[in-house]
Write a structure and sequence with these properties.
The protein is α/β, with parallel strands linked by helices. The protein is built from 10 helices and 13 strands. About 30% of the residues lie in helices and about 20% in strands. α9 (about 270-280) packs parallel to α10. The two termini are about 20 Å apart. Bound molecules: S-adenosyl-L-homocysteine (SAH).
Length: about 350
């Protein structure tokens, strides 16, 4: 694979283009074109500059290969083809306040959570900062958005991959996507979800990127958590809570816990009470979601009424919580259903 031009910050890109003998305004044109989701070959630049860029960089690092539309709620799932033939998935959810895009940060995932499809084939490779960013510019463009009137208003790093297992690229992506004059999505409109990599959570608190830090908790004791999340053998819930408190202290941002309700596993009243006890008095919010089906997995969703009871207990105990409805499950686009595949040499998608 060639290099990815969209990995560069505006400043780095300007330097590169000037270094190729062009004027500064040309560099600006290249930058704005790329942020609008254009390929290098579509930029309105001199043939010499185009040739120089194409020699070193991928023309289209992320191409929308397929789009699926949910009949239930209008959610769109995208299959993106990367320059090396790997495929990743992403989702665009439409809400009253705007459109939220869910992006992937790795091809596959190595965290091994028992309920999730993204980890079935392990981790294939990390995405570069530009490959994460291009998912957004491609969708924004295909939805008819521009840089002034974006069709993508919010971003969640909740697709396949563990963002903090690809720390440097993810932080570079976050700096580039929030930068003034580009795609410019404010950190407040970005949520990053982690399975709880404590050292990276601490490191991230120092980066000065005040986004919505979200942690996949899914259990109230380390033993129970380890049954579905291997990472629980590495970091304790107490260490995760401490890292969250530190994030709040450094950024002033309240943090969020994801809690997927799994029948016979973590969804009983006693679990709700234990969760409330664990989180009482903390500046946090709990997002409950009923497990989405993953065909290779044997786990089942808690009943709707069990989920509502769970929510009610949390609320009675003074915990801020919501029960999220699942979106895009009819197209395999809901939480935990995103997966990867590879284009076969004959160009067919398996
Ligand atoms: N690796 C990160 C990012 C994934 S975000 C993380 O673990 O947080 C996707 C969210 O969906 C996580 O909270 C994850 O635990 C949850 N999830 C995974 N599989 C799911 C499923 N089958 N049903 C509902 N939620 C699921």
């Amino acid at each position: 694979m060639k290099e990815i031009l969209q990995d560069l910050s505006r400043e780095e890109l300007t330097e590169l283009v000037i270094g190729l003998g062009e004027k500064k305004f040309r560099a600006e044109q290249v930058y704005l074109g790329l942020m609008q989701g254009k390929k290098i070959s579509e930029l309105n630049i001199s043939p010499a500059l185009r040739a120089a860029l194409l020699e070193r960089f991928e023309d289209e690092p992320v191409r929308i290969s397929e789009t699926y539309i949910s009949q239930e709620d209008g959610t769109k799932k995208y299959l993106f083809a990367l320059a090396d033939g790997n495929l990743i998935e992403g989702v665009l959810m439409k809400y009253k306040y705007g459109n939220t895009q869910c992006v992937s940060t790795q091809v596959g995932c190595r965290m091994g959570c028992k309920f999730c499809a993204s980890t079935l084939g392990g981790r294939v490779r990390d995405l570069t900062a530009g490959e994460i960013l291009c998912q957004i510019s491609a969708v924004n463009r295909s939805e008819g958005g521009t840089l002034k009137e974006r069709a993508v208003t919010n971003v969640v790093l909740m697709g396949s991959g563990e963002p903090f297992d690809n720390y440097e690229n993810v932080v570079r992506f976050l700096r580039n996507v929030t930068a003034e004059g580009g795609i410019e999505i404010s950190a407040r409109n970005i949520s990053l979800s982690t399975c709880g990599l404590v050292p990276e959570m601490k490191q991230f608190a120092e980066e000065g990127i005040p986004l919505n830090l979200t942690v996949s908790l899914h259990a109230t004791t380390d033993e129970e958590r380890a049954r579905t999340m291997p990472i629980a053998n590495r970091y304790k819930i107490s260490e995760i809570l401490e890292a969250c408190a530190n994030y709040f202290q450094k950024t002033g941002r309240r943090y969020i816990f994801e809690y997927t309700l799994i029948s016979g596993e973590n969804a009983d009243e006693k679990h709700a009470l234990a969760l409330a006890k664990l989180l009482k008095g903390r500046p946090c919010h709990v997002n409950l979601i009923r497990l989405n089906a993953v065909k290779e997995r044997s786990l089942h969703a808690a009943e709707e009424k069990t989920a509502r009871r769970f929510l009610q207990i949390l609320e009675e105990q003074g915990i801020s919580a919501t029960l999220r409805r699942s979106m895009g499950s009819d197209i395999g686009g809901a939480c935990g259903q995103l997966r990867y595949s590879r284009i076969f040499p004959d160009g067919k998608i398996p």
